[in-house]
Design a protein that fits this description.
Shape: extended
Number of strands: 5
Order of helices and strands: HHEEEHHEE
Strand content: 25-35%
Helix content: 25-40%
Structural class: alpha+beta
Number of helices: 4
Oligomer: single chain
Largest sheet: 5 strands, antiparallel
Strand order of the largest sheet: 3-2-1-4-5
Radius of gyration: 20 Å
């Protein structure tokens, strides 16, 4: 089926669109820089990757306060995703090593065991529900690290 682009061209103020495009080059959406932040936990779940062939732990944090960074980042998001099923298989890296690393990372938020993917996903969901409106977390964010988020402290609200 062919798209009728003329229909869309007629719907748009071409002059304003050209101005908007030029102005857009002035807007910068830099990545969140390395730094220390107070964040809220906005999402934490086990889900499929976009390709649907792997499982990952996906976590989203919202910056509430910038403690030490080049400029204030308040209101921005930091994401951390870790594949826990479908990793390359070797003695040094495999799903077991990945899961063990995730369990170690999670220890500052709560004790979770891994018995099965469904149990783990349920426990992650329960932990998120328990924490989402009851804590703020101080983190050290290093975007180039394998685990870019290190938990420094957890504060009850």
């Amino acid at each position: 089926m062919a798209v009728d682009f003329n229909k869309f061209d007629k719907l748009v103020n071409q002059e304003q669109l050209k101005k908007d495009i030029e102005k857009a080059s002035e807007v910068s959406f830099d990545d969140v820089p390395e730094g220390e932040y107070i964040v809220s936990l906005e999402n934490m779940e086990v889900k499929e990757t976009k390709a649907g062939d792997k499982l990952m732990l996906a976590i989203a944090f919202k910056i509430k306060e910038t403690i030490d960074a080049p400029k204030k980042q308040n209101g921005r998001y930091i994401f951390m995703n870790r594949v826990i099923y479908g990793n390359k298989v070797s003695d040094r890296w495999n799903d077991g090593v990945a899961i063990n690393g995730v369990l170690g990372w999670l220890k500052d938020l709560g004790e979770i065991e891994f018995k099965s993917y469904s149990q783990f996903a349920n426990d992650i969901e329960e932990l998120f529900e328990e924490l989402k409106n009851s804590v703020e977390i101080q983190i050290s964010y290093s975007p180039d690290e394998f685990y870019p988020v290190s938990i420094t402290e957890v504060f009850d609200l």
